[in-house]
Amino acid sequence: MKIDPQRMDQLWHLLEAAEDRFCGPDEFSYQGALHSFSVGLRGVMQRAGEGVDIIEAKRYFSVLLKEKHYAIEISDPEDVGIPMARMIRDDWQRVPDSMVLALGRSFPSVPRAPRGGGVRDHSTQFPPQVDDEKTRSLIDSLIADTKLYATSKAVKELFNFTARMRHVAPFNAMLLNAQKPGLSYAATVRDWAERFGRYPKARARPLIVLRNFGPVDFVYDVLDTEGRPLPEAAFSFPTTGDIPRAWFRSAEEHLEKAAIKLIWADEGDRRAGCVWQEKDYNDKARLNAVSLVVNANHTPATQFVTLAHELAHLYLGHLGIDRKRGVDDRRWADLALREVEAESVAYVIAKRSGISPRSESYLSRYKGAFDAFQPQVVLQAANAIERLLRLPFTSWPNGANGGQMSFNLGS
């Protein structure tokens, strides 16, 4: 449909007034200005109890933007992900509502016949304007009730997460962090398909983010997609190797007998696992109760390394003394040394079973800890874990290809 030149001339001063109120070429791109105009005009008309044919209004406003050479937005392929919340301006002190209303009334909403029959006001195809402040206040209250951010550590993790997810509005980053801690990257179905040739896995659970002046968007974590291979650098814990799922069932039985509860958690790629002591019996005749978490969304090879890493913390004494297991209290070790020791144990165990973790990238964060590193402590813990899990695999090539797998049952 062509623009009527005569009508355009008549509306030009009102369109310029709307530009002064809702956008500006120094702050907005073409797409951003059109969005701010659309949101602002609808808001003024709704407060006045009137409708507007926003599509027709945007057609005329877009001509003004092109005439004034607003920049076309060009996205960097590396910045594709959850759509960034666009800036909205409403300088009501500069341009009064009366001029905006005059413009809106020039585009009255008209009944249109939708597909499938029936008649509806065209403006109803847009999501109803919501009270963003009220919505966010309610969600703030819900999150506060969960006590998700009741400690300084949790708050620090939230802020670090928000800093990493720079293409997501901060409030949406908090929502994503609450839904899937450790999330590294998420995108809409369309972005995954068009940019990466990937699609959500069957029964993958979408994550919810808020949209401006609308309901919600659904996005998917990278771990919940499949399709075209992604580069290794796209993942936080890249690991190569193949482990049949049946092995984990056997390992879980051994862990249960050793008073270690294995928990499978639905978490993002940046979280691999954790371990803690549930009960310290301080008894040579009774094992301390331990809980160990592994990310259920990682590949089996990564889960294998995570399991070894978290067990290493236990057998290295990082959780405290365990008399029955013969573990000394080594909680005095600082964070860097603890992580170097645990990852070194995991690396030794993994390599001896045909799994190749990228431990060097993880250990590079803690270079200074190697001054206090004691290889014999690492090897003793690795030996204890291999005995517990019946490792290493002695027929790895057959096992890796789905054949019969045997275990080293020696002491």
3D architecture notes:
This protein is of the alpha+beta class and 411 residues long. It has 3 domains: 102 residues, no CATH class; 99 residues, no CATH class; 162 residues, no CATH class. The protein contains 14 helices and 12 strands. Helix 1 runs antiparallel to helix 4, helix 10 crosses helix 13 and helix 11 packs across helix 13. It is elongated, with a radius of gyration of 29 Å. The C terminus is likely disordered.
What tags apply to this protein structure?
43% helix; 3 domains; alpha+beta; 411 residues; 3-stranded antiparallel β-sheet; elongated
How many domains in all?
3
What portion of residues belong to β-strands?
5-15%
Which assembly state applies to the chains in this document? Answer: single chain
Number of helices: 14
Average pLDDT, all residues: 81
* Structure class: alpha+beta
Q: Uncertain regions: pLDDT < 50 for 5+ in a row?
A: 75-85, 113-131, 395-411
**Roughly how much helix do the residues carry, as a percent range?**
40-55%
Tally of strands = 12
Strands ordered across the widest β-sheet: 3-6-5
User: Mind telling me the C-alpha Rg?
Assistant: 29 Å
Q: Biggest sheet: strands, sense, closure?
A: 3 strands, antiparallel
N-to-C order of helices and strands: HHHHEEHHHEHEEEEEHEEEHHEHHH
Shape: elongated
For the termini, the CA-CA separation is: 82 Å
Structure, briefly:
The chain has 411 residues and is of the alpha+beta class. The chain has helices spanning 5-22, 30-47, 54-67, 97-105, 132-146, 152-164, 170-179, 189-196, 245-257, 300-315, 335-352, 359-363, 375-389, 396-400, and strands spanning 111-112, 120-121, 186-187, 198-200, 207-210, 216-221, 225-227, 239-240, 260-265, 273-279, 289-295, 356-357.
